[in-house]
């Protein structure tokens, strides 16, 4: 069969693996459900075109493996019931390609002119249908929560959604189409990368060759598959977006000076909880946040368990402006940080083409499994923070930044890169100033004065600590207004003449 031969003979190991997994899902579906009770939803797009040829290959191999070798040429096209939801808003090129393809492969077509849900209800009433092949991929709006075999959603007609290409990326789709040299809709050669209706789809501007002649390169030349929907022209609130960008910038420092943003730090590591090693990165990160005017509200050490990470991220992401998480990042069984972040946001881990490219450049083929599991990132919420000084981008999921640092020196580099990257959202506000006063007075002696001081200087944080129980007491005064901090310190020292002296912060 030409599809199977083309993929098996190509040098792209990733493509061969994706193909083998998808074809297995197809074969499994035909083994589970009667052929006449299976249907294929075809819309003329690139994903369903890929699915059509995977179904053809899977059906051929299913028949061959089952020993049904009679009339093998007749099953190459897999005459599966094909559903097409025709819309008056569809591109003429999509309609013509769909009908041409159906004719070419002899597919029994069932055209529906109503919406998807109503059409399925009518279809299932008329003909028993237990399973429908659908070209859903990770990154599609409706892909969240689906598996390769997923029952229809509550409230919908009951059937099994079969998603053979669920884990395929944009790059995988085009790799397959170009490897197999099958025909696809001509719109993709005109710069369209994701095709909806004629009212909300334009060529992807990222493929524009000329701003005057409006010439676009083919869809398969889009280098970042995450931007395939950039040609969808859904309107957004420009004012909201601009305000959001402005609030994350550093141009209006004066307006931000007195704002105290809060951050949480989550450390993932059983080795710290077991006492095997001591965390130093967290303490260093606290100092760095403090230096740019951020308040650290919470530091937690959690186990290398997805649920432990997820619960902590869930708690922190809604309370603070930013959450930093480190530890548990990599290919080991204990590296569960990203899975925990994904679960906290209610999304799945999905392949990220850009990150995988970085990993491939850094590691070559030295990764585990047939695909690079380290390139699975939280779906739909991940932003890669690139910097020329970093071998790999840092991973940002909404307001959660995952750090790769394992020591203070690595943290220094990553922190400098974050500050140099506007997309990080790290606004540099007015830094805190601190004064540290040491005394040999007892807690009981100074407690009443400190209580009154806290009321009088509510804008100054006043805390205390001891190096040892028998050693001196250190009073810490921290705030954003240096004059207020100095005034509070002067008031305290004047209350106990000669009993306080300034000390270094580390003492």
Automatic annotation (TrEMBL):
Keywords: ATP-binding, FAD, Flavoprotein, FMN, Nucleotide-binding, Nucleotidyltransferase, Transferase. It catalyses: FMN + ATP + H(+) = FAD + diphosphate. SMART domains: MoCF_biosynth. SUPFAM superfamilies: Adenine nucleotide alpha hydrolases-like (SSF52402), Molybdenum cofactor biosynthesis proteins (SSF53218). InterPro entries: MoaB/Mog-like_dom_sf, MoaB/Mog_dom, PAPS_reduct_dom, Rossmann-like_a/b/a_fold. Pathway: Cofactor biosynthesis; FAD biosynthesis; FAD from FMN: step 1/1. It comes from Urochloa decumbens. Gene3D superfamilies: HUPs (3.40.50.620), MoaB/Mog-like domain (3.40.980.10). This is FAD synthase. Pfam families: MoCF_biosynth, PAPS_reduct. It is an enzyme of class 2 (transferase). The lineage of its organism: Eukaryota, Viridiplantae, Streptophyta, Embryophyta, Tracheophyta. Its EC number is 2.7.7.2. Residues 264-411 form the MoaB/Mog domain. It comes from the Eukaryota.
């Amino acid at each position: 069969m030409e599809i199977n031969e083309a993929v098996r003979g190509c040098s792209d190991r990733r493509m061969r693996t994706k193909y083998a997994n998808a074809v297995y899902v197809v074969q499994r579906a035909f083994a589970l459900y009667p052929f006449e009770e299976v249907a294929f939803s075809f819309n003329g797009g690139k994903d369903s075109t890929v699915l059509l040829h995977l179904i053809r290959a899977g059906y051929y191999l299913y028949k061959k493996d089952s020993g049904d070798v009679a009339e093998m040429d007749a099953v190459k096209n897999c005459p599966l019931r094909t559903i097409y939801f025709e819309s008056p808003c569809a591109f003429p090129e999509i309609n013509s390609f769909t009908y041409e393809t159906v004719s070419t492969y002899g597919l029994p077509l069932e055209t529906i002119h109503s919406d998807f849900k109503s059409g399925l209800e009518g279809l299932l009433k008329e003909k028993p249908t237990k399973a429908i092949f659908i070209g859903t991929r990770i990154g599609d709006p409706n892909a969240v929560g689906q598996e390769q075999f997923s029952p229809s959603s509550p409230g919908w007609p009951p059937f099994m959604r079969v998603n053979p290409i669920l884990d395929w990326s944009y790059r995988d789709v085009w790799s397959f189409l170009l490897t197999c040299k099958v025909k696809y809709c001509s719109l993709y050669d005109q710069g369209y990368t994701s095709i909806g209706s004629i009212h909300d789809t334009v060529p992807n501007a990222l493929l524009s060759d000329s701003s005057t002649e409006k010439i676009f390169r083919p869809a398969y030349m889009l280098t970042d598959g995450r931007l395939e929907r950039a040609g969808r022209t859904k309107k957004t609130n420009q004012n909201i977006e601009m305000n959001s960008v402005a609030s994350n910038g550093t141009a209006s420092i004066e307006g931000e000076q007195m704002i105290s943003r809060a951050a949480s730090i989550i450390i993932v590591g059983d080795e710290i909880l077991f006492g095997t090693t001591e965390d130093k990165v967290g303490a260093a990160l606290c100092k760095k946040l403090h230096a740019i005017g951020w308040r650290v509200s919470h530091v937690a050490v959690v186990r290398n368990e997805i649920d432990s990470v997820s619960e902590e991220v869930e708690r922190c992401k809604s309370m603070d402006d930013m959450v930093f998480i480190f530890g548990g990042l990599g290919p080991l069984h204990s590296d569960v940080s990203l899975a925990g972040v994904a679960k906290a946001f209610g999304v799945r881990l999905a392949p990220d083409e850009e990150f995988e490219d970085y990993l491939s450049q850094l590691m070559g083929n030295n990764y585990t499994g047939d695909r690079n599991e380290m390139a699975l990132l939280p779906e739909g919420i991940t932003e890669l923070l690139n910097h020329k000084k970093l071998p790999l981008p840092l991973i940002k999921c909404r307001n959660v930044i995952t750090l790769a640092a394992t020591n203070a020196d690595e943290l220094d580099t990553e922190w400098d890169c974050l500050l140099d990257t506007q997309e990080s959202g790290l606004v540099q506000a007015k830094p805190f100033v601190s004064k540290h006063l040491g005394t040999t007075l007892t807690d009981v002696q100074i407690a009443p004065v400190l209580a009154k001081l806290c009321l009088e200087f509510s804008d100054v944080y006043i805390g205390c600590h001891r190096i040892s129980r028998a050693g001196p007491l250190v009073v810490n005064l921290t705030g954003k207004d240096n004059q207020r901090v100095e005034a509070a310190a002067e008031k305290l020292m004047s209350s106990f003449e000669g009993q306080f002296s300034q000390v270094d912060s580390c003492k």
